[in-house]
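Bench log. Compound arrived from synthesis this morning; before running ITC I wanted a structural hypothesis for how zinc ion sits in the protein. Inputs:
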Amino acid sequence: MKIPLLSNATQDKRICAFCNGIGDMTTNGPGRLLNLDVGQWCHLNCALWSAEVYETVSGALMLVEQAYKRSINTECASCKQKGASLTCFFQRCPNTYHFPCAVNNGCVFYKNKTIMCPVHASRTTATDQILDDKSVFRKVWINRDEVKQIQNYMTEEHEETSYTLRIGSLVLHNVGQLLPHQLQSAVFHNRNFIYPVGYTITRFYWSMNRPNRRCAYHCTIIDMDNKPMFRIRTQENLDEPAQEFLESTPKAVWHKIVDEIDSLRRRHGLVKMFSIFVSGEDLYGLTEPHIIRLIESLPGVEMLQNYAFKYGRLQLLDMPLTLNPTGCARSEPKLQTHFRRHAQTLTSSHSTRSALPRTVLGVEGTQIPYVKHFVLSKSTQ
Ligand SMILES: [Zn+2]
Ligand SMILES: [Zn+2]
Ligand SMILES: [Zn+2]
């Protein structure tokens, strides 16, 4: 059986918003792609060396969005294309480049994260400050407005194959939904988790067939006889048969796979993977803060009894309850959830919800603690 999603997932089509280069590049060149916004990417060094951008001690790249906005109308002094963001540090020199163009053009890169065009670099004496290797092996990410990013995702008209939200080794394709009778049945949630029907992710995890290789696991939640069922499909190569697992809990279905991986590793004399510490909900992405926010924003979810909200009043979006006007169960899969942004999204609270138990915002809830006490660190590469 052919699953197009898995074959597509192996081809990197992500384009850098600055230099237009496709996919990850060498570490001493533009570097790996970082997530800039929903469906938007940029190379680590294309962002890091932009004139406005600086890095906090915790590894957050600040002001990348401003750099991107400026680059949209800024022509590269070398290739004459738009998207240039690395500006010569010499006062009033207008020369601005793409990162790869700056390298190819003989611009000089300094340890304090500034660059100079060839003309001005030749007049500068600080040769001991020149940085030769531009590789970045530490963890860095682009600081962005997480709430805005998730709102963009929610308000995009997206089909299953179009916009995706990538979080580490996980790609969210569809957040799913719960219809009124599913909400009322109380079997699609428990105290800690909500299981929306149609929820679909791809998890990149260890292969069951090849030791030390990773492959894509396509995980969905489906409604089977009015109960949630957890289905995982994987197909490492198109000439191999797809494997499918179906169980009534995320734990049960993932443990089948983790057991296969463990027995493969035993056969090859490799160390065990400590599968006992891997939670099925973790691998299903249901403990990811972004995904919890999306699920807690689904229509009707605020009425769930016995579910402990992780975000409570910080609920992202106020959305109408999904209605099934036909009353016919067969038409349900065609129904789309329409998201509507509330005028006072973040401050709105619901009297129905205030009576429910809430989890106090924990570590996961404090999204951007580093903003308050960052220290400029342009000097470490
Ligand atoms: Zn780039
Ligand atoms: Zn250029
Ligand atoms: Zn210059």
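What the model suggests: Residues 207 and 214 are 5 Å apart (CA to CA). The domain at 4-141 is CATH 3.30.40.10 (Herpes Virus-1).
ITC booked for Thursday regardless.
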